[in-house]
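Q: Here's a chain of 437 amino acids. Please give me its 3D structure as tokens.
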Amino acid sequence: MEKPGKISPAKGKLGVLLPGMGAVSTTFMAGVELVRKGKAQPVGSLTQLGTIRLGKRTEARSPQIKKFVPLGELKDLVFGGWDIFKDNAYQAASKAGVLSLQDLQKVKPFLSKIAPMKAAFDREYVKKLDGSHVKKGKNKYDLALQIKEDIEKFRKAQRVSRLVTVWCGSTEVFIRPEEVHSTPTKFVEAMKANHPAIAPSMLYAWASVTSGVPFANGAPNLTVDIPAIQQLALEHEVAVCGKDFKTGQTLMKTILAPGFKARMLGLAGWYSTNILGNRDGEVLDDPGSFKTKEESKLGALEYILQPQLYPMLYGKIHHKVRINYYPPRGDNKEGWDNIDIFGWLGYPMQIKVDFLCRDSILAAPIVLDLVLFLDLAQRAGMRGIQEWLSFYFKSPMTAPNLYPEHDLFIQLMKLKNTLRWMMGEGLITHLGQEYYD
């Protein structure tokens, strides 16, 4: 990929379209408005709080990221979305129970004006949910065209100059790539034939990409991780990324596992279990949806630890992941990890982690960063898979036959080096020999 010759300025409004206006989406929208009103801080957002080192350490140049690259501003964000329930964003946020009543009251007029469009939905793909606020059409292609129409209506009604779509909907049942996903033509034919391998999330991806709108996939669904959509992204010069927001337990794994590997500590087993009681937990109570999530959560350790290169240390890992729906916990997910490691001469040790996290509180700043970075990539002419945004995902998308990088610290270095590259600054290698010449 050639370095961007010129990055178009972030002029006008930036529309944010959210399929799934549940806990994550409403926490994100409410949070942005609270920050805009000066009532809260955007903790967890790299675009808002992060800095980036430029040049040598002796130069002491570390500007804020938002002042280094031409990101869109929070004041320019406008929101829309789809959901299977009619509740406006305030009602949905109240039911989700993530934010306090005091915080929601501060943004009630703003959230109350955001009403969802009817969703493309099929219970065959999310068996634990059902809603009446859904589209009707003669086939999946017709539904996808209706989504495209929604996008254009939103663009005109809100007078936005740019758009980004971020999937914040539920985890769908596990689907393997099939021939119908191989080309744009076969994909359209499959939509018209109501092929079972075309899930609702794929309709949003197709509609967004063919409308010239960047798309981020926050769930472990296949969605944009198929050749047909990726080819369309190149043809329509659209940036895409995914998949599955890296928030709680997997975030901790991608922090801890690189440390074990760096010190050549062995790993015998890693047992992970979660309890959560929000809509996500209810959806994952279905074996089909859990299978999709399990595949996403299991992959990180293997790629980080590279057992094929270190068979003695990591060749016989027992890795187990469990998720249990427990309604009393609500959005406050708890993740337990029992980690059996071994050190010098093979002597065993243990690490226990109990992460009492807030799922949507961790996810909301990810949504914000993805919106702003995808918009930046789009204005810079960076089309197709944006692997530099792997930092935010459990199952990062990559080019075909390229293994994903899961190490959080390598991902962050890749992200920041991409920003340096975009702006014509030298890349940071951390070699540092020049200081001792």
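Q: Can you summarize the key feature?
A: The longest helix spans residues 359-379.
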